[in-house]
Structure prediction request, 252 residues.
Amino acid sequence: MGKIPRDEIIRFIEPRIHTFHESRLQNLLKLELDKILKRKNPYLFKAKNITTAHDLIKSLLDSHLSSQEEGIFGGFLEELARFICGKVFKGKKSSAEGIDLEFEKDGVQYIVSIKSGPNWGNSQQIARMKENFIKAKRISGTNILKVKVVAICGCCYGRDNRPDKGVYLKLCGQNFWEFISGDEYLYLDIIEPLGYKAKEKNEEFHIEYNRVINKFTRDFSNIFCDSEGNILWEKLVGFNSGKKPSKYKTLK
Prediction:
């Protein structure tokens, strides 16, 4: 088993963190108000008693951006985990469906599905992961004689105090990072380089974020508020959910 130097991890992380920030900024700049209004649940925002255009737009935008950022960052963490395991245990991307990493350690062949956190999926998604594990185990068992194959759901943060799920083991947070690296404290070592130029990048992002908030609030108010500034909820729901294409579909 090798051990990956900390400076090598830093060299891997820093340019990819830059890419993460650039991706989230570009995603923000490409947003169109009409598409966000159609994707989010207007009933929810009414139930939360949101009464101002600014608060509604901010809630819509934050919800949308959060979902996007989780996806982008989840892909980065998967790449980081594979890089570290590759250096330590010669781990690699698997060709099997739904398997993100495979490697051998102490005479055991591991197949790993990497997730961001412990509450990553619903019952159908978990069932699909189990099916992928069963299929991959069967294929690995055929190709690698007399080698035990163990399936792992690896979560990059969080914890699970009952890791044995029958078909697979669920390793979260410190347990996962130690499992793929052999280093008990790796989960702490990777946090500092993740903040590379974070202040500078977030300041740049928030300048554009505030501009988008102001622009979308203005456009929303012009179409979905009355002359006294009240949100026209029926008009908004009609745009979001009505049978016929709305004449407001070209809203930018």
The chain has a mean pLDDT of 90. The two ends are 55 Å apart (CA to CA).
